[in-house]
Write a structure and sequence with these properties.
Helices cover about 35% and strands about 25% of the residues. An 8-stranded mixed sheet has the order 1-2-3-4-5-6-8-7, with helices on both faces. The chain has a single domain, classed as Gcn5-related N-acetyltransferase (GNAT) (Aminopeptidase, 3-Layer(aba) Sandwich). The chain is globular and about 55 Å long. Helix 1 (about 20-25) crosses helix 2. The protein has about 200 residues and is α+β, with helices and mostly antiparallel strands.
């Protein structure tokens, strides 16, 4: 198992071919896919033959970055995945943050926990300069996660959807966080801790 990072409750690791059924179940859930692509579940054969092999190939293409399976630290239960992946192999310091979790694990703070861990690793160990994310304007739950993780709203934009889905008429939003911003906040947090500590 190639672990990318850990959080208080999760292990984020590389996908392997053995994850085909778990990934197919996640992408086959209509509620999970409601705000993604055409808003419909992805057929299991597409996940097994196209999606998963592409995710595994990305680790080589993007120098170890990519989409990582999330599982519980206690018993290895598959929770979903987190994305920490550039779009351009020539721009490895500019990465997209994303997440997709099983419905049974929504509302537990896992998306925020995983996102914060990735930001910390990216900005302190990997030389990442900028982390960004997009979601539909109407996807309020995902927007809350991005804001809790520390990303800031940048813009609302509109693209042509081949198959418009409910809410697409309101466009998409982009969020970002720069390494310098993250470092400045971390320094303030440390300073605040020192000022409130007692001997």
């Amino acid at each position: 198992m190639r672990v990318f990072c850990t959080t208080q409750r999760m292990v984020l690791r590389r996908f392997t071919p053995a994850d085909a059924d778990a990934l197919a179940a996640l992408h086959g859930d209509a509620e999970v896919m409601r705000f993604i692509d055409n808003g419909r579940p992805v057929p299991a054969d597409v996940v097994r033959e196209d999606t998963l092999p592409a995710l595994i190939a990305d680790y080589t293409r993007f120098d170890g970055l990519g989409v990582f399976a999330a599982e519980t630290r206690t018993d290895g239960t598959f929770l979903g995945w987190f994305e920490f992946r550039p779009h351009d192999p020539a721009n490895l310091d500019d990465v997209e943050l994303g997440y997709r979790l099983h419905r049974a694990h929504w509302g537990r703070g896992l998306a925020t926990e995983g996102s914060r861990a990735l930001l910390r690793k990216g900005f302190t160990e990997l030389g990442i300069r900028r982390v960004w994310a997009t979601t539909m304007t109407v996807n309020h739950a995902s927007r809350r996660v991005l804001e809790k993780a520390g990303l800031r709203y940048v813009r609302t934009f509109f693209e042509d959807w081949p198959e418009p889905i409910p809410g697409s008429e309101h466009g998409d939003v982009e969020y970002e966080l720069l390494r310098q911003e993250w470092q400045d906040r971390a320094a303030l947090d440390v300073s605040g801790d020192q000022n409130t500590s007692t001997a």
